[in-house]
Design goal:
There is one protein chain. α4 runs parallel beside α5. This protein has about 375 residues and is α/β, with parallel strands linked by helices. It has 2 domains: about 170 residues, 3-Layer(aba) Sandwich (Rossmann fold), CATH 3.40.50.720; about 190 residues, 2-Layer Sandwich (Dihydrodipicolinate Reductase, domain 2), CATH 3.30.360.10. Helix content is about 30%, strand content about 25%. The longest helix has 19 residues. A 9-stranded mixed β-sheet has the order 14-13-12-11-7-10-9-8-15, with helices on one face. Strands 3-2-1-4-5-6 form a 6-stranded parallel β-sheet, with helices on both faces. The chain starts with 5 loop residues before the first strand and ends in an 8-residue tail after the last strand.
Length: about 375
């Protein structure tokens, strides 16, 4: 067990600021430092939350020997190289999705974790969302019966987003749909086959030399009779934002609602046809968390005089997953165990998307996951 407080630094204060009060209230943790390139934003957030140590330079932050863990929430192209730098600096790493943008960066992270014994966790929100935890509970209690098939999607309109987003191939950032289909049974992807569909407008194609509006991937599970179907769209496809996950079992199946905010649909076999489906609302599973952070599953915990926090916090976004991810990370470090997803599992999940796009460019060619992404 960890005897002293775990000192955490957060790099990136857009989405990353949401985690500050969770770490501050987590027993045995010390939100020690924050890092943000924009000095004004750094001061604003640091003053609001009373964070004592502040950096505008990521490399300078890594030189601070007091920091135990770096939680990376920077732009996607920086994830791989910053995780590699942090591990080389002797820091445990938590990184928002995806793990990296190349297979080689994923490989380097896996190898560094094995060489150093440090902890790495990709902070995939969907596998700690209330909806996923509900399906996981049904699975672990045997109520789903034999799992027969899994499906997931992530659809979003990214028009107008800056920097690296325009024209991004859909499967390049696919962990929100790949993660849950592999996580439910703690499976690994063996190979993928992906087809691109439709065409985005010419002005978007030039950034990544990719024309696909939608990419649709089948994932074959390793040492299993299961496969999964995931699909992703980012541009020129009319659809409300949706991160969905569905599981089909022999006894019960659970489907994501078509409209965000509606309840899940639970199907039970062998009932009269009209009684097979029922609407269900997933609980928050706050009881799985330390008492001090349970309120963050539904909207946050604030003292009456701390309204200033509200301007930085979206509340219980991503299905109430944020405190569950923090708990998994810090309890894994404290108890010297691997978190989920650890480096190997994160690489398997992330490389599915990277290689799926490669498959689509090759007309659906089957592509196997590299050995470093496979445990055992």
């Amino acid at each position: 067990m960890q005897s002293k407080p775990i000192r955490v630094a957060i790099a990136g204060l857009g989405f990353g600021a949401e985690f500050i009060p969770i770490y501050q209230r987590y027993p045995g943790a010390n939100l020690y430092a924050i890092c943000q390139r924009n000095p004004e934003k750094l001061k604003q957030v640091g003053d609001a939350f009373g964070v004592p140590h502040r950096y505008t330079d990521f490399d300078e932050l890594l030189q601070d020997p007091a920091i135990d863990v770096v939680h990376i929430n920077t732009p996607i192209p920086d994830h791989g190289i910053q995780s590699i730098k942090a591990l080389k600096a002797g820091k445990h790493v938590a990184c928002t999705v995806p793990m990296a943008t190349t297979v080689d960066e994923c490989r380097q992270i896996v190898e560094l974790v094995k060489a150093t014994g440090l902890t790495y966790m990709m902070m995939e929100t969907v596998v700690y969302s209330r909806e996923f935890l509900f399906m996981k509970e049904l699975y672990e209690k045997g109520q789903l019966g034999r799992i027969q098939f899994l499906k997931a999607s992530h659809q979003q309109d990214m028009d107008g987003w800056p920097d690296y987003w325009p024209g991004l191939p859909p499967m390049y950032y696919a962990t929100h749909c790949v993660g849950p289909v592999l996580a439910l049974t703690k499976s690994q992807a063996e190979y993928v086959s992906c087809f691109g569909s439709g065409t985005i407008r010419p002005g978007l194609q030039e950034h990544y030399h990719s024309s696909f509006a939608v990419e649709s991937t089948h994932i074959k599970f390793r040492d299993s009779d299961l496969c999964a179907h995931v699909y992703r769209s980012l541009f020129d496809t009319a659809r409300q934002y949706r991160e969905s996950f569905e599981v089909y079992g022999s006894e019960k199946s659970v489907e994501w609602p078509l409209i965000e905010g509606d309840p899940l649909v639970l199907h039970t076999a062998k009932r009269p046809e009209p009684e097979i489906p029922e609407a269900v609302h997933a609980p928050d599973y706050a009881h799985l968390l330390p008492e001090g952070i349970r309120g963050f599953t539904t909207g946050g915990v604030y003292d009456a005089d701390e309204h200033r926090h509200l301007s930085f916090i979206q509340g219980a976004g991503h299905g109430g997953s944020h405190p569950h991810m923090v708990h998994e990370l810090l309890s894994a470090i404290s108890n010297r165990r691997r978190p989920f997803p650890d480096a190997t599992a994160s690489a398997n999940i992330t490389c599915v998307g990277i290689l799926a796009h490669e498959s689509a460019l090759k007309g659906g060619e089957r592509i196997y996951l590299p050995a470093f992404t496979l445990a055992g």
